[in-house]
Amino acid sequence: MWNNPIKLLRITGIMDGTSLLVLLLIAMPLKYWLGVPEAVAIVGSLHGGIFVAYCLAIAYAAIRLQWNILWSIIALFVAFIPFGNFILDRKLKSVEAKYSVKPFNLTLLVYSIVFFSFFDLFTQLPVMSTFATSVGASAFIAGIVVGLYSLTNTFGNIMSGILTDKVGPFKMLVTGLFLSSCALLLYNLVDNTAILIIVRIIHGFVAGLIVPAAFTFSANTTLNHEQGKKSAITGTFVGLAAIIGPAYSGIMASRTSTPFVFTTVAVIGLVLTLLAILLLRKYKLNKKEKTEEATLSRSLFNAGVIKAYGGAFFLMFSQGVIAYLLPLHVQSLGYDSRLSGTLMSTFGIIAVLIFALPTNRIFDRVAPVKTLALGIGLMGISQLLISQATTTLTLYIVLGLYGVGFAFMFPSINTLLVKSTQQKLRGKAYGYFYAFFSLGVVAGSTVLGWLPFEAEGGFIFTSIVLLLFAAVVTLDRKKAVVAG
Length: 484
What we know:
The radius of gyration is 22 Å and the shape is globular. It is built from 20 helices and no strands. Helix 1 (5-34) runs antiparallel to helix 2 (37-65). The protein folds into three domains: 1-103, no CATH class; 105-286, Growth Hormone, Chain: A (Up-down Bundle); 296-483, MFS general substrate transporter like domains (Growth Hormone, Chain: A, Up-down Bundle). The chain has helices at 5-34, 37-65, 69-78, 84-95, 106-124, 128-134, 139-167, 169-185, 193-207, 210-220, 227-255, 258-279, 290-293, 303-332, 338-356, 362-365, 368-388, 392-419, 423-450, 455-483.
């Protein structure tokens, strides 16, 4: 079976599809019609475990077959659709003979680790505030509990960056994976607010160790002229985590419990930890950059790095505003709150498509400063248009435009950071980079909460801020060209 990844995927897929049908058609009717809640608890737990195995089978197939990433996206998508796995099984059976098992593509393992890190983050979004109140937290304390993760994550990012340059990205990657998995298991011990706060502090800090090390490892094992495309593909896995994470935790927590959801995520993390130890230890770092590094500034905070940090901050500042104001705007228009969720999924899906499709080649063919300015400009325009959108159709169109801007921004700032730093400083550079990410999210929602704006005014204010940053980046680039 291990030598036939498609067969393993088909078996776990059929099991996942069957358990989903049992949950929907048997367990849920037993709970809601006959008053047997234990049915959903038992079947939901089994389905969650099978789903984790199915996700691992998808990752294993992707690594061993090196197939188009769209196969993996489709395989994950059908898991949420009744009978979807069975339809996919027929397709997999028809193409099984076309694929041969290849040596492990270790790049995909790094992508999987990036996915895990953001999947860990996004699974928290729908459930953490309600979990906090369930153990006795007030609404105010629940807000603090949610924000503590991002705050301590910032310190973890910085610490990871510093240590990555000293001990290497591999050691920090493995350490972060293992400690994050253990922290996720600690939620099973939470029975009061004090313990939850302690667990959130630990979880946020150790989770912050992963991303700078993962992105540094990825950058240091990639040729300079391929950094843009690879950053876009990495963005695909971040986008998938943003789409799948909230849906998975929201559904599974309602059928089992929040600690159980985090336990399944912890299992994935421990498996990835083992794979990283076995497979990444001897992965060769790229040595062909040395001649190019000689032309880079020895200072970490050069013009390119500062633009990348600014892009990271304003990208997530915009995200924080969207998360805070979009539900309020949708509600003020008289629409159901579910529309906010589908709108956010829309922008994520658009971004993932641009990351995964051949459009990702643009990030190696066009200077990252140009695509950075274009991306932040589109995001600024979309924020302005959101404030004026009043119908469902226009909201979807505008959020799609926002997704295009996001898709241009993420690879651009990553590529700009890589091309503006030396390998020996790249860990620290990524540590500060993702600290700006975390601070941007907090600032976006906090600043708009402090300012005396309604939703419409908040979007207009954010639009002005983003367009000003786009103008600064564009003008600075023109000055550099003239000076050159």
